[in-house]
């Protein structure tokens, strides 16, 4: 590992998605504990699930859409899960931080960061690889990009087109979707049912689901027990949990899983 140092001012304005891969995090834990390391989005929980579910499987060439600072791709490269990665994002600071991490881990020859606005048209024009990662992007369609398309056909149909496009680009898809009250927009599906509905969208596009879990469930119950809990588990218990959270939000009660509960991880293959 190359020399690496980190100052608090370097990370104070970065997204909580800009986590450090494990080797660097241990080295800089006193600094990152005051910054992005709060991990309010469950970034490390997600990677723990990805690593466990895809253990022993080579992910080969990776494309990372909306990569932030490339935590997932760089962690995969550093652990030997992937051979090379091309990572796309729009934020200059995040990309620069990712390049610094790649240099510290001696991954510069295997990691390429590109500034790019991701749209359905961009995805359709991508060259095929082995694995696509897209963990914080699709639920922003209709707000940050492809506004006209989502308004015209609805987010559900837009997501299906996205999944069909990705089917032509990779054999493995690691996808995260924020299933919030106001996002995705223009999708007339109750918040409680959105994980299952997206599950159906993915399968209708030809993807086989390997794993799906709410990020809060991963942290709360562990990787294995979280699998399918919101889609094919005991949905009555999940509904009670959902209603409890709605009450907590209404009365502004503290809930440690409030943010994590809004995100769902899907791992798929063809």
TrEMBL record:
InterPro entries linked: Methyltranfer_dom, SAM-dependent_MTases_sf
UniProt GO MF annotations: methyltransferase activity
CDD domains recorded: AdoMet_MTases
Entries under Gene3D superfamilies matching the protein: Vaccinia Virus protein VP39
GO biological process: methylation
Protein keywords: Methyltransferase, Transferase
Source species, domain of life: Bacteria
The Methyltransferase domain, residue ranges: 60-141
Protein name: 16S RNA methylase RsmC
Organism the protein comes from: Desulfocapsa sulfexigens (strain DSM 10523 / SB164P1)
Lineage: Bacteria, Pseudomonadati, Thermodesulfobacteriota, Desulfobulbia, Desulfobulbales
């Amino acid at each position: 590992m190359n020399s690496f140092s980190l100052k608090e001012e370097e990370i104070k304005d970065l997204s909580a998605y800009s986590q450090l891969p494990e080797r660097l995090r241990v080295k800089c834990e006193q600094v990152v504990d005051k910054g992005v390391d709060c991990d309010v989005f469950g970034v490390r929980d997600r990677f723990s699930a990805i690593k466990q579910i895809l253990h022993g499987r080579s992910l080969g060439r990776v494309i990372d859409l909306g990569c932030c600072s490339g935590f997932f791709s760089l962690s995969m490269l550093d652990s030997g899960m992937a051979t090379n990665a091309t990572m796309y994002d729009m934020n200059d600071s995040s990309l620069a931080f990712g390049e610094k991490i790649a240099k510290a881990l001696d991954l510069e020859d295997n990691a390429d960061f590109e500034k790019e606005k991701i749209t359905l048209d961009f995805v359709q024009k991508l060259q095929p690889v082995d694995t696509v990662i897209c963990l914080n992007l699709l639920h922003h369609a209709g707000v940050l990009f492809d506004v006209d398309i989502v308004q015209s056909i609805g987010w559900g149909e837009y997501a299906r087109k996205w999944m069909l496009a990705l089917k032509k680009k990779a054999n493995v898809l690691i996808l995260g979707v924020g299933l919030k009250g106001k996002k995705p927009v223009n999708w007339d599906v109750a918040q409680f049912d959105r994980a299952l509905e997206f599950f159906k969208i993915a399968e209708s596009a030809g993807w086989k689901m390997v794993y799906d879990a709410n990020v809060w469930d991963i942290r709360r119950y562990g990787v294995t027990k979280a699998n399918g809990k919101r889609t094919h588990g005991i949905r009555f218990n999940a509904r009670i949990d959902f209603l409890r959270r709605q009450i907590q939000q209404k009365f502004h009660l503290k809930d440690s899983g409030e943010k994590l509960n809004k995100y769902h991880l899907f791992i798929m293959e063809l």
